[in-house]
Specification:
single chain; 242 residues; alpha/beta; eight-stranded parallel barrel; 28% strand; globular
């Protein structure tokens, strides 16, 4: 069980959205590297970076910011948000990103994920499955896909992917607690290692995720709760990370 602190980027700044709505963005810092260094000092094993501009169809934005983070921290970075081609996957892996989170592309063009796995290995690619009201959401959470999340997760497992980050959009940025039952359901039905995302707002929430580790839950991503000082990331890592 690992605790993964998050940095969400919009126009080069650290922000957080409520339920994925771009207009809800609250800016917390104009220095993402400072956050990354703080996470490194706290003992993070991974840092989760989301290029929100990329997710909303602006893939070239934040490249310099992301490269600055990877050059200046020793902690591996997992990156998601608008990465939808083999060229972009290669671009980021060549620049030191530890693993790539693929979301919309696994629905629209699963062969891209499959080719990336063949070339770079299964540890380099993570399936990002975002759920809204029981359906898979894609394209920056602005569209719904005609596939059930269990079916999508099983397809990814069959392709060779070994882990997925699952976000319940209804809870994302709301600090009200994660939808653990759905995460356990995916892990149990597919055998994928599941990283929980969305809704974490307290140490109690993190402990609930940690208690589900035997059910296939590998980790939890924490963002807004750190930004708003509801969770001390160093304390969280010390208490539950194994």
């Amino acid at each position: 069980m690992i605790v993964i602190p998050a940095i969400d980027l919009l126009d080069g700044k650290v922000v957080r959205l409520a339920q994925g709505r771009e207009k809800s963005a609250v800016v917390y810092s104009d220095d993402p590297l400072e956050f990354a260094l703080r996470y490194q000092e706290a003992g993070a094993r991974w840092i989760h970076v989301v290029n929100l501009d990329g997710a909303f169809g602006r893939p070239g934005m934040n490249d310099a910011v992301i490269e600055r983070i990877t050059r200046n921290v020793n902690v591996p970075v997992e990156l998601g948000g608008g990465i939808r081609t083999l060229d972009r996957i290669e671009f980021w892996l060549d620049r030191g990103i530890g693993r790539i989170v693929l979301g919309s592309v696994i629905v629209h063009s699963p062969e891209i994920a499959e080719q990336a796995i063949v070339k770079h290995g299964r540890e380099a690619i993570v399936a990002g499955i975002d759920i809204h009201e029981g359906q898979v959401a894609i394209s920056g959470w602005t569209q719904k896909a005609e596939i059930h999340y269990i079916e999508l997760a099983q397809n990814m497992k069959n392709m060779g992917i070994c882990r997925t980050i699952v976000t319940d959009i209804a809870t994302d940025g709301m600090l009200s607690g994660p939808n653990i039952d759905t995460m356990i359901d995916i892990a149990g039905n597919t055998g994928l290692a599941v990283i929980v995302s969305g809704g974490v707002g307290s140490m109690e929430h993190i402990q609930r995720v940690a208690d589900a580790a035997d059910s296939g839950i590998e980790g939890v991503i924490v963002g807004k709760a750190i930004y708003e000082n509801k969770i001390d990331i160093a304390r969280a890592i010390e208490q539950v990370q194994t």
